[in-house]
Amino acid sequence: FCSNNVVFGRKYRFRSSESIVNEIELLINEYNAKGIYFREDLFTVNEKRVMALCDEIRKRGLDFDWECESRVDTINEEMLTAMKGSGCKLIWFGVESGSQRILDDLNKQITLSQIREAYRLCQRVGIKAGASFMIGVPGETIDDIQNTIALAEELKPEFAWFNIFTGYPTSPLYEYVKKNKLYDKEINHGILIVKTNEFDRRKLEKIQRYADRKVNGYMKRLFRQAFLEVKKGTLTRQKVIRGVRYLLGG
Prior knowledge:
This protein is an alpha/beta fold and 250 residues long. The protein has a domain at 4-161: TIM Barrel (Alpha-Beta Barrel). It contains eleven helices and eight strands. It has a five-stranded parallel sheet. Strands 6-8-7 form a three-stranded antiparallel sheet. Strand 4, helix 7 (142-155) and strand 5 (160-164) form a beta-alpha-beta unit. One of its GO terms (molecular function) is metal ion binding. Keywords: Iron, Iron-sulfur, Metal-binding, S-adenosyl-L-methionine. Its cofactor is [4Fe-4S] cluster.
């Protein structure tokens, strides 16, 4: 379901802490940036690198808020404390499912216990945690989806994204989806708009809206989405109208 290795490959290039913070200083001094979003799937994969970056930010006396993306099995309290001290306000985790069976099918290589522990640590340190979830995974049942929604309510993330499984070439389960024709159509570059034996696409979209409303609530969803769009400078009247219609189930 993840396309990053298809788009970017599996090579990973590190930048030095000095180089990253030099760029941040430029953004703050020249463009009056107030916050930074580190768009990196595994920001915390290298603890030594994270600690060095946090130290460099503190050493230069920079004061800005930042967010990042991470895996629940790559954090610890010492790292989170350093991140908090250098301005980290929120971490996004790919939780995906409240069913261990589905997590295993997705080859996430994480456990429900690790998920709960990661959110507990973030709460203890004082960093907010967001979450992304996946529904419509081949073989998923309504009980699995209910477990996912229940886990989202238990974790109480700052915000929860509920995504419908999409088949990307070379990603886990892609060949299974294609061989068993578990998709409504194929779009650009072989991407599959997936359905399952249990749920057609329309049903999945209905469940997606239900989960979104139940966990996030109407206004929380609206304000969070608007906040993100404002930060990116991409908020338009049409997007506001489309977002309200989505929340209303239209």
